[in-house]
Structure prediction request, 333 residues.
Amino acid sequence: MRTRVAGALLAVLALTATAGCASDDGGSAEREPAAKAEVAADRVEPLADAPTPQLPVTVRSSDGRKVTVRDGERIVPLSGSLSEIVFTLGLGDRVVARDITATFAQAEKLPVVTRNHDVSAESVLSLKPDLVLAETTTGPDEAMDQIRDAGIPVLVVDPAKGLEDVGPRINTVARALGVPAAGKELTKRSEERIAAVRKDIPKETDKPRVAFLYLRGSASVYLIGGKDSGATSLLEAAGAVDGGAESGLEKDFTTITTEALAKAAPDAILVMSKGLESVGGIDGLVKIPGVAQTPAGMERRVVSIEDGVLLNYGPRTDEVLKSLVDQLYGDAK
Prediction:
C-alpha cells in the first residue's frame, strides 16, 4: 500500500506485491481479528453534492513544478489514498484507472496501471488521461518522466505521515481538480469526524503501548515500526503510545528481533489484516521470535486493520481511528 506513508514501507511492498490490500469494525482484542477488525465497509462516502470543476487551474506540485490542469474528465490517481480523495470529493466518475492499492468498492473494477507497485507508463498513456496524481514516492522515475514527456499534467502530492496531513492533502487534490470549495467541505467533515472519535477515547485508563508490525509471511518480511513508520500519529490520536518509536527505533522500519520487541514491550500489536493472514493469524504471529514473550503476545492482544486504509490519512481516517479505539479499549469504553 502506498498511502500515506514511509518510503521504506513502499520498498518492502514492491517486493511483496502479491500480498494485496483491501477495510470492518473491530471486535474484542482477544478474539481472532482478521475477519472482523476492519473498517465498516470497504467503500468511500462521497460528498452529498458532486461539485463541478472550474478549470483551467495552475497549481504547484510537490516536486517544485507548476502544473496547469486544463481538463479533468480523465483522471489517473497513482495511489489508493489519492484515489480515495478523488472519489470522496464526488469526482469518481472521472477516474479511468487505479493503482493496485485502491481496493475500495467503487474503484475495484477500474483497470490497474501498476505492476508490482511500479507505474506502467504505457498503461497510463493508453488511457489518455487529462491529469495524473502521484505521491513523491511514486515511481520509477523513468515512467513518470515518460508520462510528463507525453504532455500529461502530473501533480505530485506530499506523502501522508500523520493526522495533520489529512486536510492539506485533500485541499491540494481539490485545488488541482478545480473544486476548492469541495476540498474545504471534505476537510471540515473529515476533521470533525476524527475529533468525534477522539472524544470517545477512555480518559481514565493507562495509555496502552502498541507496536506496529509489518508482516509478509510469504516473503519472510517481519518488521517493527519506528519513529517514521507513519503509525505514531494514529496511535497517539487513539490515546496510545507507539512502543517501537518510544523504545528508540529511529528508522521507519527495523527487522523484528526479540530484543527490539522486549524494548517496545507492547500491550497490543497493530498489524495490517493481510499481513496477519500471511503469517497464519494470531497463532502464527505468536510464533515469530519474541512476540509470545511480550505482554501483547501473552494476552494475544492484536489489533488488525485493513491494509488499504490503515495509514492513508484521508477521508476515512476517522473510521480507521474508530476501529483502532474499539479494538484497543473494548469494554473499557
